[in-house]
Amino acid sequence: MAAVDINDPASTLNDDGVDAARAAGHQPALTGCPWHDVNEMLQAAGLRPTRQRMALGWLLFGKGARHLTAEMLYEEATLAKVPVSLATVYNTLNQLTDAGLLRQVSVDGTKTYFDTNVTAHHHFYLENNHELVDIPDPHLVLSRMPEVPEGYEIARIDMVVRLRRKR
Ligand SMILES: [Zn+2]
């Protein structure tokens, strides 16, 4: 399979899906430069670094660990004069999630946050501010785990502890 030249403008305009062959064996070489790192992360995940993915990735990953809804990212993109539609933001967030670069955290079944921290951790949900915050202790465990039906295993436990201000 022919390698895609990332400097070729045609390849950055082509907005297609995951290219598994590219992902195989490519480890991202992160340097701390957000633009370079986003490019590396996308390519390591088998996603072409299109202009839109680069711009959205830069907004997402350039500021440390974050929890954003599609609407929040769309607003940031609009403020940063990145020409994208809300549908593109949704698609990109889903592609990044499928590629393992983001983790989805659902609250209320209506609000979905995208977390740039994909390691195992739980969340506080601040009901008053509609804000998701990491619970600092990653080793927090339930003292009694539920019985798992025959033939299944626990893939992951997502705990959202809802907080509200004391009256
Ligand atoms: Zn988190």
Helix-strand sequence:
HHHHEHHEEEEE
- What's the assembly state of these chains? single chain
Structural category is alpha+beta
> What's the CATH topology label?
Arc Repressor Mutant, subunit A
Record field, number of beta strands = 6
Helix tally equals: 6
Arrangement of strands in the largest sheet = 1-3-2
Shape: globular
State the CATH superfamily name. Winged helix-like DNA-binding domain superfamily/Winged helix DNA-binding domain
Show the helix and strand layout.
Layout: H1 9-13, H2 20-23, H3 34-44, H4 51-61, E1 67-68, H5 70-79, H6 86-98, E2 103-107, E3 111-115, E4 123-126, E5 131-134, E6 160-163
Helix pairs in contact: 3-4, 5-6
The protein binds zinc ion.
Describe it for me?
The chain has 167 residues and is of the alpha+beta class. It has one domain (27-163): Arc Repressor Mutant, subunit A (Orthogonal Bundle), CATH 1.10.10. Helix content is 32%, strand content 14%. The protein is built from 6 helices and 6 strands, in the order H-H-H-H-E-H-H-E-E-E-E-E. It has helices at residues 9-13, 20-23, 34-44, 51-61, 70-79, 86-98, and strands at 67-68, 103-107, 111-115, 123-126, 131-134, 160-163. The chain has a 3-stranded antiparallel beta sheet with strand order 1-3-2. Strands 5-4-6 form a 3-stranded mixed beta sheet, with no helix packed on it. Strand 2 (103-107) and strand 3 form a beta hairpin. Mean pLDDT is 82; it is low at 1-25. The structure holds zinc ion (ZN). Residues 67, 115, 117, 121, 123, 134 line the site of zinc ion.
